[in-house]
């Protein structure tokens, strides 16, 4: 929302905290060391455009498993370089049921800053405002009422493609 964010590969840390038993601080190399999966997936915007691309990166579930998420957590809040108070969130059941990826690559090319380096959340079947970029922290929370930047502006918190764009 503040334009392209430039995050240094050598200094980057992804913090995974909140309702976890083992808080994590992962480097970009740590993210690369996880098993990588690739999906051919559509990114759909509420404005009506979409594009299909190959997205490659680690499973968010694998990272959450390492953090040992507490049973009271129901959502993951994605804090970004440009919206540190929490850009958006996804339900943990949705993350687990859909094996959500943190895409380090787009069409086999490392993400550029414009595309969200170090990774973009690949929120399968969700509108693009749930595909967080420039993520610096993933907070596990029991606050099912949390609303991120676009959701506070009236966009649907569910963000299901084909569903209503606004609440």
Write a concise synopsis of the structure shown:
With 167 residues, the chain is of the alpha+beta class. It has helices at residues 28-33, 60-67, 92-98, 149-152; strands at 14-18, 24-26, 37-44, 50-57, 75-80, 88-91, 101-103, 105-106, 109-110, 120-122, 135-141.
What's the pLDDT, averaged over the residues? 96
Beta-strand content? 25-35%
* Sheet of most strands: 5 strands, mixed
Counted by DSSP, the helix tally is 4
Radius of gyration: 15 Å
Which regions are unreliable across 5 or more consecutive residues at pLDDT < 50?
A: none
Strand order of the largest sheet: 2-1-11-5-6
Number of strands: 11
Q: Could you give the distance between the termini?
A: 21 Å
Helix share bin: 10-25%
Secondary-structure element series: EEHEEHEEHEEEEEH
Shape: globular
Structural class label: alpha+beta
Write structural notes for this entry:
The chain has 167 residues and is an alpha+beta fold. Helices cover 15% and strands 31% of the residues. It has a five-stranded mixed sheet. A four-stranded antiparallel sheet has the order 3-4-8-9, with no helix packed on it. A two-stranded antiparallel sheet has the order 7-10. The chain is globular. The two termini are 21 Å apart.
